[in-house]
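In the current project phase, we have settled on a layout for protein records. A sample record is reproduced below.
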Amino acid sequence: MGNETDTDSISVTRNDEAGRYEIHVGDALGGFSQYITDSRGRELFIHTEIDEAFAGRGLGGTLVGQAMADVAARGVTVVPRCPFVARWLGKHEVSDLQVDWPEPRP
C-alpha cells in the first residue's frame, strides 16, 4: 500500500452488495462510506473510513461528494448519521439531494 502517489487514478464506486461506496487509489481500496437502506428506501450513511495510508489527501471529501451526487441522481433521500457525512453536507450543496437530518443531529 505505501507505494501509491498523488498521480494514481482515483475512482469511487457503489458496492450494493456490501452496502457502501468505495474509493480506490489505483488498485488499492482507500476507504469506504457505509450505508443501510431503511424501510422507507432512504440511505442512512452510518460510517466513513479512510485507510491511514491515504490520510491527508482529501479522499474522504471526494468519496462523500461522489456518493452524494450518485444518491441525488437516483432520487434517493439521505440520512446522514455518520458525523463526517453530516459535516460534509453542512459545507457543500448537492443539486437535487434530499436530506432527512436525524435528531439529534450528528
About this structure: Residues 45 and 80 are 5 Å apart (CA to CA). The first strand starts at residue 10 and ends at 15.
